[in-house]
Amino acid sequence: MRIRTDFLVIGSGIAGLAFALKAAAHGKVTVVAKSAVEETNTRYAQGGIAAVMYDPDTFEKHVHDTLIAGDGFCNEEVVRMVVSEAPERIAELIEEGVEFDKRPDGLFDLGKEGAHSEYRILHHKDNTGGMIQHTLVRNARRHPNITILENHFAIEIITQHHLGEQNITRAKTDIQCYGAYVADLKGNKVITILSPVTLMATGGAGSVYQTTTNPEIATGDGIAMVYRAKGLVENMEFVQFHPTSLYNPGARPQFLITEALRGYGAILINSAGEKFMNRYDQRGSLAPRDIVARAIDNEMKTRGEDYVYLDCTHLDAAGLREHFPNIYEHCLRLGIDITMNMIPVVPAAHYLCGGIKVDMSGRSSIDRLYAIGECSSTGLHGANRLASNSLIEAVVYAHRSAIDAVSRFRSIRLEERVPDWNYEGTSHNEEMVLITQSYREVQSIMSNYVGIVRSDLRLQRALSRLEIIYRETEDLYKKSYISARLCELRNMINVGYLIIKMASKRHESLGLHYSIDYPRRKGTEF
Q: Which of 247, 282, 330, 440 has the fewest CB atoms nearer than 10 Å to its CB?
């Protein structure tokens, strides 16, 4: 089966759907979602979306905060572009129907999060991502030019390799994307989707780790596909661990305790009742995420504890329930009344700052292929993401990539020589236990050796273990029919490899990459 479309969008979060809604005004859009269209990382984003709205905030302050949080590793031109375009994109979200909380005087009720110098976080209670996702899905379903393929898994992007061309390398500058092979998971068939423009918006890779705030579908699929197609991928060593996920062993994903709660006045406390963060950073509980996560990790290891506490019992109870209803209700179901009880929290893999290398229009190194959202590396986040900068990055790049793609898609001819998927030599895989066990092993390797604190020895051990699983999985993949679980495992291994290799090459501690073998780049102590 073949599908021909003007714009192929792989991923259905804020980045993919914001692009789809803009592109749909100019042509037919096909959106591929590997599960339900609503199940994305966007849906789980609690805190909000950062933008300069009122005095005394300024673009310069937002730029400065982003550069500081990114440990000086950001692309300042990109930072200034995103920050300056943010208010316009916020206005467009509101036009789409997104509702942000307002004060009685009609102004937006802006929040403040770690490493922000001003109140600039627009939010919808503590479920901002869910509100945005719901709104964009509703609008996409109603649009006559948008077709949504749910429960469809993108296996590979199509390039000259599939036309028989050999010796395609990352140094090659004329690789082209013709579309993608997509598995219909319910129909048990692989569809060839041809398009002059393909957009990768597949989100992050938190499921590579045992403990993550991401949904299980966050397996780095887009990054792995582009890497296998010889596209450029960068900065994968910078994995952000959110400092405060709810400690609840066995839960997956880990329930996020938004940073906005600390912005509201909650304080981190260890098992001895000490407000420990000021020992690590003068900004205390509102220091950048990399510093807070390492501090918590150090407190837990020093004291032999499994978690620390987030204390908001000193805050107004009615205000807590009003501003953070989802956190209040979720914790209450577990017997924790956050107005009276401290919340046990632990760091969890949360956001990937690296990914598919793109320019300021979202173009990747592969012609006709764009990448936006968490799967991309734009230069905005540098070595550590400033809280709530991810959603605004997604809509800014959706806008810019849509403008660029619309300007050129009509001049690009579809590549009809692409062969359909080859099923030859494959059979049904009856050894699901092999996939499940390898899944767990990958997550264990990454969590134990490539987590918040790293070393050369740990990274080398991780690479050795992962290479064994890689060989076993590739052998299984060649013999088996396509399944989502097997493809996800294969992608997780690719992503884990990239994180390890890039971490091994960085001989300094910088932002989210912290090695006991190398000092911090700026010579700071923690």
A: 282
Condensed to tens digits (0 to 9), the pLDDT of residues 191-218 reads 999 999 999 999 999 999 999 999 999 9
Residues sharing a CB contact under 8 Å with residue 290, sequence separation 6 or more, in sequence order: 71, 240, 383, 384, 511, 512, 514
DSSP string for residues in 375-413: GEE-SSSTTSPPTTHHHHHHHHHHHHHHHHHHTTGGGS-
The residue-averaged pLDDT of 493-513 equals: 97
CA distance readout (Å), 526 to 214, 238, 302, 464: 27, 16, 15, 29
pTM: 0.93
Specify the pLDDT at position 523. Answer: 41
Count the neighbouring beta carbons within 10 Å of the beta carbon of residue 386. 25
- φ, ψ of residue 171 in degrees (nearest 5): -80, -15
Burial track 195-231 (b if 16+ CB lie within 10 A, e otherwise): bbbbbbbbbbbbbbbbbbbbbebbbbbbbbbbbebbb
Q: Which of 289, 458, 490, 506 is catalytic?
A: 289
Give dist(CA 132, CA 127) in Å, integer.
Answer: 9
Residue 256 has pLDDT above 80, yes or no: yes
Comparing 137 with 430, the larger pLDDT belongs to 137
Rounded alpha-carbon distances, angstroms, from residue 517 to 68, 454, 508, 522: 24, 8, 8, 15
- Directed axis angle between helix 76-96 and helix 389-406, to 10°? 90
Q: Provide the mean pLDDT of the chain.
A: 94
Q: Which domains are seen in the chain, by residue range? A: 2-237+353-411 (3.50.50.60), 246-347 (3.90.700.10), 432-480+483-505 (1.20.58.100)
Kindly report, residue by residue over 297-317, the tens digit of the pLDDT.
999 999 999 999 999 999 999
Q: Which tens digits make up the pLDDT trace of 368-399?
A: 999 999 999 999 999 999 999 999 999 999 99
- Cα separation, 43 vs 39, whole angstroms: 7
Helices 76-96, 59-69: crossing angle, 10 deg rounding: 120
Which of 344, 410, 355, 413 is closest to 381 using CA atoms? 355
On the question of pLDDT at 288 being above 60, the answer is yes
Task: Indicate if 289 belongs to the active site.
Answer: yes
